[in-house]
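Data card: per-record layout.
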Amino acid sequence: MPTDDHHVTLTRARGGDDAAFSALVGPLRAELHAHCYRMLGSPFDADDAVQEALLRAWRALPRFEGRSSLRTWLYTVATRTCLDLAASRGRRALPVDLGPASAHAVPDSAAAGHVRWLGPYPDAAVAAGPAAPDVRYEQREAVELAFVAALQHLPGNQRAALLLFDVLGFSAAEIAAMMGTSAASVNSALARARRVVADRVPAHSQQRTLRALGDTRLRAVAAGYATALENGDADALVALLTEDVTWAMPPLPHWYAGLDAVLDFARAMPLGSCGGWRHVPVAANGQPAVANYLRAGDSGPYLPWSITVLTVRDGRIAQLTSFLDGALFPAFGLPATR
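The structure for this 338-residue chain is written out next.
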């Protein structure tokens, strides 16, 4: 239950005290940001959504009557803000959404600037464990790449219903009040959303797979990938990959499926003509990841190039998703050079 101090702080915030408002929303900011990322599929869009949602909340706070908890009210504002942004900006995509895989390397591939790409999310921004009892998804399961990508195929109301119910533990009645609809409509949207997501995500989450694999083996897989890249060692890379491995590099539209195609691409580009590599192990979307720095010539600094998120199955890498965007590095607490 809210304490007397909470009520005093809320009263001050309603009266226009900025510090009091910051004290109220500060403890909830990280979880609201993660929710906005799940809704929008981009850490940058999540930044915009949280900023806009808190501005809306600040302006509307004098009208907050306390019929729900402050947390529920803030999730209402944040969800509606995300729905507005999603409607105006469109859904996020991965290369697999654009067309079939390429059988051979496409070295002259150009960035598809017209596509709004899915982006990675720093693990440090996501709490561990479930947000509430009896939810379907742990917090980190609900930022896994496959799950967030699947959400992008849902209409906004279904996406919101699924996240609010199955990830955050709000009831159908609470969600109906948040969305201005009926509990029956929420349950219908939830059922449709679950069917779509079930068809698009693996049977076993990465969290389950990674727990079975263990930290030592997981670190070895990620380090092995990075070392193979730095050494230009195709054989070492192949030893880490599944037969049906895929490799995508948004914003490049081409992607590769199967060991032969992935190896052809790797030999032509990252193991061949790109330049020299250095790496830093990170974690993104509840999965192991590697921050890759690239030096194009024989001298000078290694500069931010990509965050590569690894999807693991049976102790090997089944999917590499390399997000080619140096602007992502600050969110992961990474240095500007290596």
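Known properties of this structure: The chain is about 45% helix and 15% strand. The mean pLDDT is 95.

See the next section for split statistics.
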